[in-house]
Amino acid sequence: MTDDLAGAVYAFGHDHGVPRRGLGGLLGGKGAGLAEMTSTLGLPVPPGFTIAVPMCRAYRQSGWPAELDELLPGHMRALEQKMGRCFGDAADPLLVAVRSGAPKSMPGMLDSVLNIGLNEAAVEGLAAASGDEGFAWDSYRRFVTMYATIVLDIAHDVLAAAGSPAEGAAVDAVKAQVKKLLAAVEAAGHRIPDTPGEQLRGAVEAVFRSWDSPRAKAYRQHEAISEDMGTAVNVQAMVFGNRSGQSGTGVVFTRDPATGHPEPYGDYLWHAQGEDVVSGKAQTQKIAQMAIDMPAVYEELRRHLARLEGHYRDICDVEFTIEQGKLWILQTRIGKRGAIAAVRAAVQMVSGPAIGLTPAEAVSRVPAEIRARARAETLSEARGRTAGTGGTALIATGLAASPGRASGTVVLSADAAADSTGDVILVRSETSTEDVHGMSVAAGLLTSTGGLVSHAAVVARGWDIPAVVGAGDLVIGDEHVATREGKTLFSAGDTITIDGGTGQVWLGQVEDLGGAAGGPADEELLEIELPELRILESWAAEHEDA
Amino acid sequence: MTSETTKAAGTAATHQLLVLHMLRLGAFVPADKLAERIGLDAGTVRAVLAAARDEGLAKERSGRISGWMLTPAGKAADAGLLASELEAAGARAGIERLYTRFIPVNETFKQVCTRWQMRDMDAHVPNDHADAEYDAAVIAELGEVHRAASPLCHDLAGVLARFGRYSREFEAAWQRVSAGDRKAFAAPMSGSYHDLWMELHQDLLTTLGRDRSAADGQ
């Protein structure tokens, strides 16, 4: 098969004359998505261009295609004009990311290189433009490491000899490490090119080459993806939410993914890069605060969110960055949501004119098992609140680390868990590696220390067992569990119930909590808490039988 | 002759430390698996285990969880052996410094694991692994962690040789993740990246005598 390569590089905004969503075979999945967001949806996506899949095929057949040498400079010039920055500029450099993007998703299998365009002069320019020398040098360090390992194929342990500075190390330490890394690259007989153009070519070629890496081949074999397909390469301007001035970054859902309430839901952070928001390293702000901090940008964001929901006819999850007052949309996808949100949003999307979902569509999006989960969660939350105010059975509240409810006999060590029969709840002040074995036979886990991201929480979720962690009011001894004041609450052998979705802990077996005399019936509670469920069930009765 | 005896005694003490400490980190390991992980032959390991049982330091148990585990006395003995190892090798400052480097990476790593398992912690939305792009992004984050962990393990092995196995084991787990094996990320008791990480964390704490349950002798 011979491909026509003459024009096989396309700006994200290129008019293909056909719907861009169907261009995955030419532009790859990521490239088609970027094209659709740029043109069809008119979103402010950081500009760039896609080197189409046929170029990769040509490269694999007969090496670096001459057409690319002709096409790349023109596309880079256009990119510079759009961004008002120059590639390699020592004052305020344009940096680009080079990312793979095959027609079939191959997560993590193909390479990407970020921060292209940095060199000894440009790093100073980035420091000046961002007002953050530490960030600039750390970006340079990451670039040198990625370029050396991915493009120049230098082994990690060769670079490891240069050591790595502690997180938050002084700028001078990072500078010194970059020097060491560059020296290690030279000692290995290589050199990182100074000119951004050469860096770009190296990175593009590395992405092409990564198609034939052993792990990519193994993945394709496993997933039955054709060896001959090849990947597209996306070259995109990098934007930084940690620049000076009004800059920041955030993640927002078009609706609350827990409750389904139709208000933007998310967090953002001033002067930060994307990973800072998701990593939870810094204190983020609720998205509503943005309406006060930057009303114009917030209004623009809301417009894009409405446009996205209307287009995809579903809850969307959007990553954005604000660079010196300018809003950029980085990524959008269909938002994951909890069962309650799924029910509420589906019914509201039928009622509201903006999306106009049909009842049949709503039912197909929220199948019976999700509806059952929404029902159970709604009742559990409502009953939990009842129990909490009653104050008789609820003995502690911790962090909800792994959802689900479990009742069982209390065991206070892995050894006791091993001796047990029947359902047990392992109760520990903290968990060590030994307790992992105890957890392997437990129906649930309760700890008095640790957070939502503790090792114990990771293990509990890995096994899908309910866990409440960090119930800090509990003092856990060898035989008894007491309050801080020394009053014994329960002992080894007693039965307790934990709810890893709410963080609540009750004495005894409480699966039928509140259902006894006096409490409201399930259907009444549901009608108050989630009336959308009854509506959806009635549609389901009509449409699922049909 | 004298030096031979001293050497033999030294080797025996090293074997005892390696075996007891591996049990401290990964209780209920079958003897053969234990031998493989610390790089000793199975016969030696069984002999050390038998001696430890006779001294009341370890016990082999059956039931819902079976295998070898340390007794409270065994945990105390392990803590003592670690302390003398640290002193003899003059390694405290070195391990201390590397532990300080480990802490921030550990925080990042636990966050990454949580994102791998949960799409939204507040809303209890688990990651169903249907969104390949999301998974790819989290795997890339693990790659960053791995890039930071590799030199750290390399440096740890430079201070105390017994830390040498972590480089190999982390690399093997990372290769499995890279090859698309989802369990290799954080599935418990499967040699996953998280399993190894939790073990390294505890190893550092126990080595420095910071492990609360060891100090309490529980």
Question: Radius of gyration of chain B in whole Å, from Cα?
Answer: 19 Å
CATH class division of the largest domain in chain A: Alpha Beta
Oligomer: heterodimer
Q: Estimate nothing, just give the exact number of structural domains of chain A.
A: 4
Query: What radius of gyration of chain A results from the CA coordinates?
Result: 28 Å
Number of helices of chain A: 20
Strands ordered across the widest β-sheet of chain B: 1-2
Which class of secondary structure composition applies to the elements of chain A? Answer: alpha+beta
Describe the main β-sheet of chain A briefly. 8 strands, mixed
Query: What's the N-to-C terminus distance of chain A?
Result: 47 Å
Low-confidence stretches of chain B: 212-218
Which bin fits the share of residues in helices of chain B?
Answer: over 70%
Largest interface, per-chain counts? A-B, 68 and 71 residues
Q: Helix fraction of chain A?
A: 40-55%
Mean pLDDT of chain A: 86
Percent of sequence in beta strands of chain A: 15-25%
- Tell me, rounded to a whole number, the average pLDDT of chain B: 86
The biggest sheet of chain B, with number of strands, parallel, antiparallel or mixed sense and barrel status, is:
2 strands, antiparallel
Shape, principal axes of CA atoms of chain A: globular
Description:
The complex is a heterodimer of chains A (546) and B (218). By secondary structure, chain A is an alpha+beta fold. Chain A folds into 4 domains: 9-237, ATP-grasp fold, A domain (Dna Ligase, domain 1); 248-335, 2-Layer Sandwich (D-amino Acid Aminotransferase, Chain A, domain 1), CATH 3.30.470.20; 338-390 and 522-546, no CATH class; 394-507, Glucose Oxidase, domain 1, CATH 3.50.30. Chain A is 43% helix and 19% strand. Chain A is built from 20 helices and 23 strands. In chain A, the strands form 5 sheets. An 8-stranded mixed β-sheet of chain A has the order 13-23-22-15-16-17-18-14. In chain A, strands 1-2-7-5-6 form a 5-stranded antiparallel β-sheet. Residues 388-392 and 512-518 of chain A have low confidence and may be disordered. With 218 residues, chain B is mainly alpha-helical. Chain B folds into 2 domains: 2-88, Orthogonal Bundle (Arc Repressor Mutant, subunit A), CATH 1.10.10; 92-207, no CATH class. Chain B is built from 10 helices and 4 strands; from the N terminus they run αααββααββααααα. Chain B has helices at 2-25, 31-38, 42-54, 72-88, 92-117, 132-159, 164-178, 183-186, 193-207, 212-216; strands at residues 58-61, 67-70, 118-120, 125-126. Chain B has a two-stranded antiparallel sheet. A two-stranded antiparallel sheet of chain B has the order 3-4. In chain B, helix 1 (2-25) packs across helix 3, helix 5 (92-117) packs antiparallel against helix 6 and helix 5 (92-117) packs antiparallel against helix 9 (193-207). The model of chain B is unreliable at 212-218 (pLDDT under 50).
